[in-house]
Amino acid sequence: MPFADDSLFTLTLPQIAGLVAVSAAMAGMAACIAFAAGGARRPWRVLAAVLAFWLFAWLSPQGHYAYYRIVLDDLPAQWVIGAPPGPGAVLRALFFGNGTLAGIGRGLLGWALIGWAVLGGGRHGAAPRT
């Protein structure tokens, strides 16, 4: 089975549901950042989408770790994020990084944000400025 060794499968079904909810909330925050540029010209929308994805790729591991501390015993309080990722790390994340389910989800979010910025991006049904 693909992904059989993924850490997701060490969780119970309710814990997985909680992790999915935490992930969706953080992805929603990234989308709000990107969507804030909805009425802007295309280059600014793309920049906002890339910024939103960069923030998600950098900060979401801390949010996930905080959730794991709630559902798993004996995890120490610690920072799991370091310095902001450079362009190479962000590009690797777009191309599904490490091949885990989390990496694939992160990459799909990045492509969705960038695709929205390039192909659409208008607010309230208005045609976007290109």
The average pLDDT score comes to: 89
Q: How many whole angstroms does the radius of gyration measure?
A: 16 Å
Order of helices and strands: HHHH
The share of residues in helices is 55-70%
Rough outline: elongated
The residue ranges in which pLDDT falls below 50 over 5 or more consecutive positions are none
In total, how many beta strands?
0
The first-to-last residue Cα distance is 44 Å
Largest sheet, strands/sense/barrel = none
Portion of residues in beta strands equals under 5%
Number of helices: 4
Kindly name the structural category: mainly alpha
Quick structural summary:
The chain has helices at 13-35, 42-71, 87-94, 101-119.
